[in-house]
Known about the structure:
Helix content is about 55%, strand content about 15%. It is built from eleven helices and twelve strands.
Amino acid sequence: MLGAPGRPDRWLAGALHRRVTAIALAVLAATLAAAALLTAELIRVDDRASLDEVLLGELVEVRRALPPLLEQQAGADGQLTAQEAAQAARTYQLTHAGSARHLAVLDVPGGGTFSTQESPAVLRDLVNRAQLPTGVPEQLVTEPSPAGDLRVLNAPLAAGGQQVGTVLLVGSLEPGRDQAREALGLIALAGGVGLLVGGAVLVVAVRRATAPLRRLAEAARAVDLAALPDQRVVVPGARRDDEVGAVADEVERMLERISRDEALRRRLLASVSHELRTPLAVAQGHLEVFELTGGGPEDAAATAAVLRRELDRLGRLVDDLTAVTRGGTADGASVEAVFVPDLLTALAERTAGLGLPLVEVQAEREAPPVVIAGDEDRVVQALLNLVLNARTHTPPQTRVRVAARVRDDGWVVLDVADDGPGMDPAVADVAFEPFVTTRDSGDQRGSGLGLSVVRAVTLAQGGRVDLATGPAGTTVSLAFPPER
């Protein structure tokens, strides 16, 4: 079973669509909140801009309409007294009543103050209580007050080069803020209703959209891994042109890989069992014969020789299995500078010690003087396995040559070539798989692990293995990257 034991399947099936729905609703709610805040801010900014326009327009009107009134009130000498300036301000007040958005206050030193009468009551109340802020001369600023924030414009009044007073123009920002809060409340109400309705629709839509994933999970839980090599599992949703199809395709490919691995595991266990049973059976048979016959010293020596040969074979088999299982990784492999001529010299000493005929190893002086990064002992082991494999599986007069060369891309290649009849194409295709052998009887029977060890050791060094075979012979090439 692929599902976790003890975990409710219904929770597993529903967790994704609930999370997707929650995330979508959270994003939608955040978007609505941002839109509402932005709308409220735009209303506030627009209201302030509109109020500023009113105040600046009123200042223009004061400076246009008041000077003629001041000139009319001036005496024959053209000089204005405080009473004359006050009379002009009173006349302007009567002809300019103000507006529902702002208040204008004309201040004439020695003549009094005059404010427009049709202005907001809250602003007139501030004037009556002397709590109206005066602002900054010649600037339009925002000032706090008991009635909230105000926009204040304070400007001087002049006529005939003579300053006669000041005008204070004031408008409240609170109505605009009230509109912004009202809009924010309406948007929040509408957004809440929209989230409820949209959330219900989204739950249904997401649940339907994730239904193929639930079917995929159910199919995965129903898979019997032990039966995979004998059956092909069809995953629901495979070959769909969307993300669900991509997941289903990957699950199907994963199951195919598991099926291949399971088949390989079975074959490997069967081969290991067979290879271990054979030497044990041979040793047991000789011991039984010796026990039944009660032979003399010569029989005991012969039996001991057989037992030692079979035990040696068991030891080699265990060593090869260890190399295959760990050789495909860097575990157990030292990484050091390996001088290729020294590598070939070590191989030549090993082949000479084994007394292998017709094996030629490139001389040290002919080998390219290059260095690779790896484990010298394991590379020599791989080359020796190739030489032994060539000597074992070719006719007696076959020559075997080992030589090194450097490719154009800088990689170092070690070639083990023979001039034998070549390999059967059916065997060549699986030559590097474990327990593939052409000898299955006699004292020289092979375990079929030699080339598997070669591939494992080479991959552990970061190298590559290539095999070329034909009527003119077989060449196995081990390519290693140069030391950096």
